[in-house]
Amino acid sequence: MPWTVRRCLAEEKLPDAIKILQSSQDFTKNLSDPPSILLKTCSEVTTLKSEIQHALLLKLSSGNIGLSECLQTVSLLRNFFPDDKSLRFRYLQSRMKDISFEEARIWMFDTLTQHRAAFGGDSSHYLSTWVSIQINRVLADMEKQIDHAEGIDSLMMQATYFGESLARVGADVRGLIVPTFAEHLIRKLEHNLTQSEIQFVRNLNQFNISTAVVSSAVNPESANLDFPGPEDMSPPKQLITHPPLALYLNDVLTLLNFVGKCPLTQSAPLVISKLEGSVNKVGHELETWGSSEWLTWEPKEQSEFNRMKRYFIHLLVPHLDRILRLIYPPLSISEVTGLSITKCAEMIQIKYIRSEVIES
Q1: Fewer beta carbons under 10 A from the terminal one: N or C of the chain?
Q2: Distinct helix (H) and strand (E) counts, the chain
Q3: Which pLDDT tens digit goes with each residue over 291-307?
Q4: What is the DSSP letter of 120?
Q5: With the C-alpha atoms ordered 315, 224, 309, 240, is the resulting torsion angle positive or negative?
Q6: Using CA atoms, how far apart are residues 307 and 288, in angstroms rounded to an integer?
C-alpha cells in the first residue's frame, strides 16, 4: 500500500491516496489484534499523511487552480484538520505570495472568491490579515513601478481597475491606491519645479538684455502684449525674445503635461500651491536681478527689462492659469467638492505678488 500511495502522489491522484490512508486507519481501529505485517504496512501509509497534506496545500497555492478544483481540494483537506478555523488559516497561508502589481488583481480576486465559496463568511481576523499583507506588498511593487513608469496614466488605469475588481469581493482598496499616485505626483512636481527655478536663475545670470533690445527692434510685433485667442493654447510667442522666461515656461508646461496624465482632484490644491510658489520665486528672482543690474543699463535696456517683467506678469502667468483650468476644470472640481463653480475658478488661479522694484 505505501507504494500505491506514492504512485497516487506522483500521478496527483490525491483522492485515491486519501482513500487508502483512511482504509489503513480503519483497519487498525476495527481489528483488535491485527497481524504485525498489517500494522507495519498501515504505519508506513500513515507516515505518508503529511506528504498527502502537503500535496493538497501545494495544489491550493497554484495560480491556475479553478473554483471547482479548489472546492474539491478544500473538501479533501478537511480530513486533516479538526475544524474550519485551522483549515482557513492553512488555506490563506498557502495563498500567501510575493506578487507583482500585474499579477495581484487576478490572484487576490480568485483567492477571495474561492475563500468565500469554500468557507462562507469569515468572522476571524485571518482573512483581513491576509488581505492587509497582500495589499501592502502590491502597493510596494506599485510604488516602484510609478517611480520608473513612463506612462503613469496607463498605470493609474490599471490600478483603478484593480481596486474596482477587489471591491466586488469586499476588499475595496481604491482609498489606498489614489493617495499613492497623489504623493508621487507632488514629489515629482516639487523636485522638477525646484530644478526649473535653479535653471532659471542660471539662465538669467547668463542673459544679456541688450540682445532682447536688438530683437525687439528687428521684430516690433514681439513687443506687444496680445494674448493668444481662447482656442489657441500655444505659449505666447513674445517670450522668445527673453529666453530665461521661455525656457522656464517650457519646463513648467512639460511638468504640467505629466500632471495632466493623472489629474487627481485631491491633488489640485497642492499642485496649484506649489506652482504658485514657484512662479513667485521666479518673479522675485527676476525683480532682484533687475534691481542689481539697473544702474549698469542704458535707458533702452531698462525699458526692455520692464517689458520683460510685463511679459512675465501678463503673458506667462495667465498662460499657466489657462493650462491649469484645462487640467482641473472648475466644473469638475465643483462636482467633487460641492463648492460653486465661481469659487472653484478662484481656487484654480496663480496669484503673483509683486515686490517693490525700480521701474522707469
Answers
A1: C
A2: 17, 0
A3: 999 999 999 999 999 99
A4: -
A5: positive
A6: 15
Q: Are 312 and 283 in contact (CB under 8 A)?
A: yes
CA-CA distances (angstroms) from residue 199 to 237, 247, 248, 262? 21, 9, 8, 26
- Residue 101, CB-side half-sphere exposure with 13 Å CA sphere: 19
With CA atoms as reference, report the closest residue to 180 among 205, 212, 149: 149
State the average pLDDT for the chain. Answer: 82
Per-residue pLDDT tens digits for 207-219: 999 988 887 765 6
User: In Å, how far are 45, 172, 309, 353 from 317, measured between CA atoms?
Assistant: 82, 41, 11, 11
Say how far residue 224 (Cα) sits from the centre of its chain: 44
Q: Can you say whether residue 149 is alpha, beta or left, with left for phi > 0 and alpha for psi between -120 and 50 degrees?
A: beta
Residue 315 has what DSSP assignment? Answer: I
Q: 291 near 232, Cβ under 8 Å?
A: no
* Neighbouring residues of 198: CB distance < 8 A, sequence distance ≥ 6: none
Which three cell numbers, joined as nine digits, stand for 18? 486519501
Q: For the packed helices 67-77 and 49-60, what is the interaxial angle rounded to 10 degrees?
A: 150
